[in-house]
Design goal:
By secondary structure, the protein is α/β, with parallel strands linked by helices. The strands form 6 sheets. It has a 10-stranded mixed sheet, sandwiched between helices. Helix 16 (475-486) links the parallel strand 14 and strand 15. Helix 7 (173-186) packs across helix 9. It starts with 9 loop residues before the first helix and ends in a 12-residue tail after the last strand.
């Protein structure tokens, strides 16, 4: 096969995947090379017992597939793929270039990435490569070519998995060279670059391109504009490598989905750019079991994955059945938590539930990372839960391909994040993801579905848009915000929004820079609160009190009205929270990090004024999401509490897990789940649903 048929779209490929596995993909990473062959037969027997229909192979297998330079051995992989196919189990086949083998590093030791401090990342872990190294690229593409050619027609092959958790940053000579070429493409000349980077500050002016390189660790602080460009380059260079492998595999298998796996809150790669080049967003998600509200941060990541490809269903590529070895204290998930976490992903748009890994390793770095089959074997609570979930998922094939829609949008933008966290901001401890989470949580608690957007997105379909610390805005992005509000939209913007331009230089005239006009207010000075636990009091326009910590600003209004003013501290009497009428809409500005009670009330007022209502009224800790499409409507109700909850499911329908009819007020057990197939006449189709 040398050309891609017109029908081979991402949606077509994903639909074909789910048809082949019989619905929701269920399984995980399988590493048979770690086990004697007599274990393989037992593994496949247990997989069938557990309802596994898809496993990921060869993620870390380069050294076993190419035993020496140009010497390929696919025999063992052929055998396991044949065995899996004979037992009705599909394969997500990985290209193994996340782990260049020892023989390749011995030949080309400069493949190893150089860290910012000049030290070299040694062999013995993983992701030990500089993606800019031409030898690494050549050999990894050769492996993709060999695998694509060899397995294109294998009946077990259902999907491709390129590399694994892309992310290593190198500051070595190969990255230097590639960065220089990237800059020469971006900038018309050195004068342009010098202006963009403000190199007259501290006398950093470049007079020849050979002087420009990766921003390795300086004696003190580093140029923030240079660092921002290097972060952009790093993401682009890894994406370029992914695309090159994808194109090799696509040539051999035009109808199979091709993805790589994203990571929770990962900083180095701009997932908006990456998702556009993949057939699905795919996530590795490992909430810390010690955190009672870990499901809220997980929810944010799930909604982000659903949003990256405009609402298209996404894939859980990795999660844990129990303990996760990356945490300092290796706590296992309590009974029922793996199940409800899986259904939470499905409720928020996932069409697969995959784990790392099938069989828990007995050696190596991740030997204490749980598996679907743990060290104790199959006669365990964990494996029984794995089997129960697998059997349940068999009855939910109708969910695949269905979608959720939202009328609220939150901005999550990697350019903003990089500029804010890499570039000498007034608070070096500021965590962008946590700022987004803080503004996301009230919507999650109220069962309001949220889409995420970047600063390039069209906002017109949303009734409420929230900008959490949206630090970097282009002129075009700022104009889209103004047009959205003037056209009748409602906006909430937090502190540290609109501060810098795309070169990471300050917009003059008062903060929040690009948003002063639409917000009808400006700050003359930032006042982060320095002391741990320091608070200031607020007085609201309706006579109530509130508080703020962490961040305040000396704010002035031009056309906005004050919703709350500082009632203590050095800014006493100045406005803290404002609302501005702008054209047909309104724009709220939070110049302070207000307390959670005030924030929840404010966001509730804004969404109610926009006509946005929950899927259902439910107790706190009970999550409700709706997925519709394919002539079906599903209401998923999840009780994240460790105690029973009573929920009014209104007209209800049929619970696909129990087969029972449900309606009105029902008792939902602790960590309990309902998957209600509704009567479609009661609800609008997905494109019109709120």
């Amino acid at each position: 096969m040398t050309s891609e048929p017109h029908t081979s779209t991402s949606e077509h490929r994903l639909k074909r995947l789910h048809e082949r596995v019989g619905g929701i993909a269920y399984g995980g990473d399988y590493n048979p090379e770690q086990w004697p062959r007599e274990v393989w037969q037992e593994d496949v027997r247990l997989m069938k017992e557990a309802g596994v229909n898809l496993v990921t192979l060869a993620v870390f297998s380069w050294s076993r597939l190419e035993t020496a330079d140009g010497i390929y051995d696919f025999g063992w992989l052929d055998d396991i793929m044949d065995l899996l196919h004979a037992n009705g189990i599909g394969v997500d086949l990985a290209t193994p270039d996340a782990v260049p083998p020892a023989w390749l590093i011995a030949q080309h030791p400069d493949i190893l990435p150089v860290l910012a401090d000049g030290s070299t990342f040694g062999f013995g872990s993983r992701q030990h490569f500089d993606v800019s190294h031409p030898g690494y690229r050549e050999k990894s593409l050769a492996m993709a070519e060999k695998m694509g050619e060899h397995y294109a027609n294998h009946p077990a092959l259902c999907m491709w998995h390129v590399n694994n958790e892309y992310g290593p940053v190198s500051y070595g000579p190969h990255a230097d060279h590639a960065f220089r070429a990237w800059l020469q493409t971006k900038y018309s000349g050195l004068d342009h670059l010098n202006r963009a980077w403000s190199t007259d500050v501290w006398g950093q002016v470049y007079s020849d391109w050979t002087q420009v390189g990766a921003p390795a660790q300086p004696r003190t602080w580093s140029n923030p504009s240079r660092r921002l460009d290097y972060q952009r380059f790093t993401s682009d260079s890894m994406l370029e490598h992914y695309k090159a492998e994808r194109d090799v595999l696509r040539r051999h298998t035009p109808d199979l989905p091709i993805v790589t796996n994203f990571m929770r809150f990962y900083k180095n790669n701009d997932y908006w750019a990456w998702a556009a080049e993949e057939d699905a967003a795919a996530l590795d998600i490992y909430p810390d079991p010690r955190e009672a509200d870990a499901h809220v941060a997980a929810a944010l990541n799930f909604d982000l994955m659903r949003s990256l490809r405009k609402g298209q269903p996404w894939l859980v590529m990795e999660q844990a059945t129990g303990a996760v070895s990356q945490w300092s204290v290796n706590v296992s998930k309590l009974p029922g938590k793996m199940r409800i976490g899986s259904y939470q992903a499905i409720a928020q748009g996932a069409d697969s539930i995959l784990f790392f890994q099938w069989r828990q390793a007995k050696g190596g770095t991740e030997r204490y990372h749980s598996g679907m089959v743990n060290h104790a074997g199959a006669n365990t609570r964990v494996f029984r839960e794995v089997c129960e979930l697998g059997q349940e998922l068999k009855g939910l094939a109708g969910l695949t391909g269905t979608r959720s829609t939202a009328k609220v949008a939150l901005v999550f933008d990697w350019d903003c994040r990089w500029a804010l966290e890499l570039g000498n901001s007034p608070r070096s401890d500021l965590n962008y993801a946590q700022e987004v989470l803080r503004l996301y949580r009230p919507f999650f608690d109220a069962n309001i579905t949220v889409d995420f957007v970047d600063t390039k997105s069209d906002l017109g379909q949303y009734s409420l848009v929230v900008l959490p610390a949206t630090y970097l805005l282009t002129d075009d992005a700022a104009q889209r915000v103004e047009d959205y509000v003037s056209g009748g939209g409602r906006l909430v913007a937090s502190y540290l929004s609109g501060i810098v331009d795309p070169d990471n230089t300050i917009r003059l005239g008062g903060y929040p820079g690009a948003l002063r006009n639409v917000l009808g207010a400006w700050s003359e000075e930032m006042h982060p609160l320095a002391e741990e636990g320091e608070e200031v009091k607020l007085l609201t326009a309706d006579g109530n009190t509130a508080s703020a910590d962490y961040w305040t600003e000396h704010l002035h209004t031009t056309t906005a009205d004050a919703l709350a003013s500082y009632a203590s501290g050095r800014l006493s009497g100045s406005p803290a929270v404002t609302r501005n009428a702008f054209g047909g809409g309104t724009a709220v500005y939070l110049s302070a990090r207000v307390d959670s009670t005030f924030l929840e009330r404010l966001l509730a007022d804004e969404r109610e004024a926009a006509g946005i209502v929950p899927e259902l009224d439910a107790p706190l800790g009970v999550q409700v999401r709706r997925r519709t499409g394919n002539g079906r409507s599903y209401l998923l109700v999840l009780n994240h509490n460790d105690a029973p909850a009573w929920v009014d499911v209104a007209a209800g329908g049929t619970d696909r897990l129990s087969g029972a009819a449900v309606s009105g007020t029902v008792e939902l057990a602790a960590n309990g789940v309902l998957v209600i197939e509704e009567t479609l006449e009661e609800y609008p189709p997905a494109e019109n649903a709120r």
